[in-house]
Amino acid sequence: MLEEKNAMLRKFGKLSEKLLDALKNGSDDEVPMLLEQREFCISAINKLQEASGTLLTNSETTKLLNELVNKEEELEKRFSKTLQKMSRSIHAVRNEQYVARQYDEWNPVSSGYFYDQRK
């Protein structure tokens, strides 16, 4: 079981590297697929942990987890940058739409009350 867990951790690490490369290269189409595969690895590791009933760990597992922490920190930075870019893009599009609506033709509609002061 411990060897299976380490194998899944290695696979998770490789998927993290691919995800990092995809984010660096701007190939956004691969990101959802890689995230799903990472989720599969996490669920497989959790099932192994639950089946054993104890924490499966050794020096290799610790080493793999320490490597993963560094990759995850870099992924978090990349995702936050991507989120900021998306937020700026959405804001720019909304601003363009707002500006475009300012020049739309308005239908003349009277609003409010008209008081006739003549008697």
Automatic annotation (TrEMBL):
Q: Where in the cell is it found?
A: Cytoplasm, Cytosol
What are the protein's UniProt keywords? Bacterial flagellum biogenesis, Chaperone, Coiled coil, Cytoplasm
**Coiled-coil regions listed:** 58-85
**Per its database record, what is this protein's job?**
May act as an export chaperone for the filament capping protein FliD.
Q: Which family does it belong to?
A: Belongs to the bacillales FliT family.
Q: Report the protein name in the record.
A: Flagellar protein FliT
Origin species: Neobacillus notoginsengisoli
